């Protein structure tokens, strides 16, 4: 397994937030936007080549943290909870959510949010996924297989059969694409 060093924690970057629609969804976030929020820069000469300073790969925990940055104010729903559970399973190798883990917290948040009327009192993506890499008992580099599993989980929990733009599946897919280029 690849060794990975975590970079120092950065405060939320307010100037990189995107406008949200009436439901709290990000109106336009793409894989490159998520990658930039993860500290990835693209060279001017070749926009497909990514460099990450001293970090060579993107982990599942970092992809989850990117979701907190790109979509942090969105209330957690069952689709998010399913994607977070799949990501945690892929990162740890544990099939069952562990007490106090991200998946259990996300599932509880989704259930609570369904019963909560006030948008201000709902549990958000940022509440669950901020510092996700530190909260996971194990972490690993995102692969295409990991991203596919998370996309499948998110789609399977969606009545519209769509993933959330800038959500967990998008962040995992962006991380997997970046890792393929390295």
TrEMBL record:
Coiled-coil residue spans: none
Protein keywords: Repeat
Record-stated family: Belongs to the LEA type SMP family.
Domain of life assignment: Eukaryota
Biased composition (Basic and acidic residues): 10-23
Residue span, SMP domain: 58-115, 123-181
Protein name: Late embryogenesis abundant protein SMP subgroup
Region (Disordered): 1-30, 155-182
Keyword Lipid metabolism in annotation: no
InterPro entries: LEA_SMP, LEA_SMP_dom
Pfam families documented for this protein: SMP
Natural source organism: Arabidopsis thaliana x Arabidopsis arenosa
Transmembrane segments: none
């Amino acid at each position: 397994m690849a060794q990975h060093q975590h970079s120092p924690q950065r405060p939320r970057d307010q100037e990189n937030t995107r406008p949200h629609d009436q439901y709290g969804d990000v109106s336009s976030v793409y894989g490159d936007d998520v990658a930039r929020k993860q500290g990835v820069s693209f060279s001017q000469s070749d926009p497909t080549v990514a460099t990450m300073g001293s970090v060579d790969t993107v982990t599942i925990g970092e992809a989850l943290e990117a979701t907190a940055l790109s979509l942090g104010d969105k209330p957690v729903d069952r689709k998010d909870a399913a994607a977070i559970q799949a990501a945690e399973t892929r990162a740890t190798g544990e099939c069952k959510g562990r007490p106090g883990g991200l998946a259990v917290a996300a599932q509880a948040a989704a259930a609570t949010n369904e019963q909560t009327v006030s948008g201000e009192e709902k549990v958000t993506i940022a509440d669950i996924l901020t510092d996700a890499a530190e909260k996971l008992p194990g972490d690993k580099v995102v692969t295409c297989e990991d991203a596919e599993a998370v996309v499948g989980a998110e789609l399977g929990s969606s009545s519209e059969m769509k993933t959330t733009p800038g959500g967990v599946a998008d962040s995992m897919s962006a991380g997997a694409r970046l890792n393929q280029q390295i």
